[in-house]
Amino acid sequence: MGSPIFMLLVSLLLSVPLSSFSELNILTKGSSLSVEKPDHVLVSPNKKFSAGFYSVGENAFSFAIWFTEPLHDGSRTIIWMANRDQPVNGRFSKLSLLKNGNLILTDATRITVWASETVSLSPVQLQLWDTGNLVLRASETVILWQSFDFPTDTLLPNQPLTRNSKLVSSRSQTNYSSGYYKLFFDNDNLLRLLFDGPELVSSFYWPQPWLNSWEAGRTSYNNSRTAIFDSSGHFTSTDEFEFFATDYGVGVQRRLTVDVDGNIRMYSLDESAKKWKFTWQAISQPCTIHGVCGPNAL
Q1: pTM of the full structure
Q2: What is the topology of this protein in the membrane according to its UniProt annotation (predicted)?
């Protein structure tokens, strides 16, 4: 029989609630993550991705997904945000998985800032997958909601961009709110970049708007409107646009981002230097991007 001290220690450890640990694998019905516990995060099984409250300003937080490993300067690379345009307070805000199956983000006044708008009477769990996809599911096969369907400014490998989604740049390197540059499928089935700036000014700038689809190396006949890239760095689109990363191959962490300057870039992580390097970009002449150069530059 164990000593009384040993048995007391075991009983104390077993009595510690799950919320006391900083790393979580799964969020279940009736549980929540608090903004007041910034290290209380969901972590993917491979440890490459984390999800939790991320500081975006003074007493301002967004629920986000980021690459777990910090860069050389200590910063994190954000890949998704639930509430980029409506940060919550640093006190009393929570991400909660309700017993009705709805995932909600509430601020200090208990106002719902964001919600998955899902309902399920079955057991539901929220988990961050190894792909960087935050998934709310009712079973192994039933997905109620996933972050891959609602990207912000970044795509990850095998995350499709569809007719129902778009990438929107951040306002600046330090301001994560929605910016002026958007990548999406237009009504003519072509993947396009749009500058949608202040003062109701908007214009397409990639591919060059004066080109016909065939002159731009595209086709408008496929209306399925899907673009995706694999882990090796091969990007394909149903309008027949494609490219390969300059370091094409497996074993590299990649992302595709509409940057704050309006360019699309694919990045690879240099793990030894802890820096991102771009391995493809859509536009080689920055001043062809609207709002970048000249007297009306942002």
Answers
A1: 0.89
A2: Single-pass membrane protein
